[in-house]
Design goal:
The chain is elongated. The protein has helices at 2-24, 51-55, 60-72, 92-104, 109-122, 156-161, 198-204, 206-269, 272-295, and strands at residues 30-38, 41-48, 78-84, 127-134, 142-149, 162-170, 175-183. A hairpin with a 2-residue loop joins β1 (30-38) and β2 (41-48). By secondary structure, the chain is of the alpha+beta class.
């Protein structure tokens, strides 16, 4: 349980440091904060619109910030590094603070919201959303949203491509919260697909198109070899079949020639048998006659 408490205490300390720096460098345009722990101490990367105001004359302002961070928040050997924002109109935190400042100066919330959206989109953002909530026109709290372009509200694309900034405008009737969400330019979503021609693909990835050509040649040669082997096998199979068919035809032609001769010979032998049978009774009758004469 002690480890969980240590993590919570570390995050609370970082949030308090962020709020402190936002208040101290508000005139310079607070754009973000990154805290990194190194073996030499704690590295604090502060992103602002005007770094000169943070550094101060002869670095006096940044020295005061360093001592305050070390004494009030307990960071070991803090080292502050100030970076300038490349395009303030694409920084969500800076745009939220500018929107809150415009509301404090008396701008109507619709005018301020549309102006912020237009500036963000003209800078090249893929999409943005501005949310203004509070007592805008009366005693009842309500929320107004201004959106343009393409923006994600949840999932991994929101964590990767969406920057969020928040600021508070203090007015006479109460406070108004200003939330700005910006999708960075050049964000590539999983659904973004670009189909290029085969020529462009071959120029970009020549190794993918050279290997299949060799494979196709090899397959063509193999198919030719297979076709030749199949043709030889078919020819060899046809030769024995032709010989067998010729022999069968010859045998079939010889059998009918023998059949009529046998049929013609059999009728000649058939009448001979009755003559023999006819003679036998004659011989028997002669013997019987001779015996009768002897008896007499």
């Amino acid at each position: 349980m002690a480890s969980e408490r240590r993590f919570v205490a570390e995050n609370v300390r970082r949030v308090l440091l962020r709020e402190y720096l936002m208040k101290e460098v508000s005139r310079a345009g607070f754009g973000g904060l990154d805290i990194q722990r190194t073996p030499m101490g704690t590295r604090v990367v502060l992103t602002t619109e005007r770094p000169g105001l943070v550094i101060g004359r002869r670095g006096q302002t940044i020295k005061n910030l360093t001592s305050a961070i070390e004494n009030n928040f307990g960071f070991d050997n803090p080292q502050i590094e100030v970076q300038e924002v490349e395009d303030p109109n694409l920084n969500a935190q800076i745009m939220a603070e500018k929107l809150a400042f415009a509301l404090e100066r008396g701008w109507h919330f619709r005018r301020a919201g549309h102006s912020s959206v237009r500036r963000i989109m003209e800078s090249g953002a893929r999409g943005c959303q501005v949310v203004v909530s509070g007592k805008l026109t009366g005693q009842r709290h309500r929320c107004e949203k201004f959106k343009d372009g393409y923006i994600k509200f949840c999932g991994e694309p929101k964590l990767q491509f969406i920057d969020t900034g928040y600021a508070v405008a203090k007015l006479k009737q109460g406070v108004i919260g200003c939330t700005v969400e910006i999708m960075r330019p050049g964000s590539t979503l999983p659904s973004d697909i670009t189909v290029i021609s085969k020529t462009d693909a071959a120029e970009a990835l020549p190794e993918l198109f050279s290997a299949p050509a060799e494979d196709e040649e090899g397959t063509e040669d193999a198919s030719l070899d297979v076709d030749e082997a199949a043709a030889d096998a078919a020819i060899e199979a046809e030769e024995p079949a032709a010989e067998t068919a010729a022999e069968t035809a010859a045998e079939t032609a010889e059998e009918p020639a023998e059949g009529p001769d046998a049929a013609a010979e059999e009728p000649e032998e058939a009448p001979a048998e009755p003559s023999v049978k006819a003679e036998e009774p004659a011989e028997g009758s002669d013997e019987k006659a001779g015996q009768a004469e002897e008896d007499q």
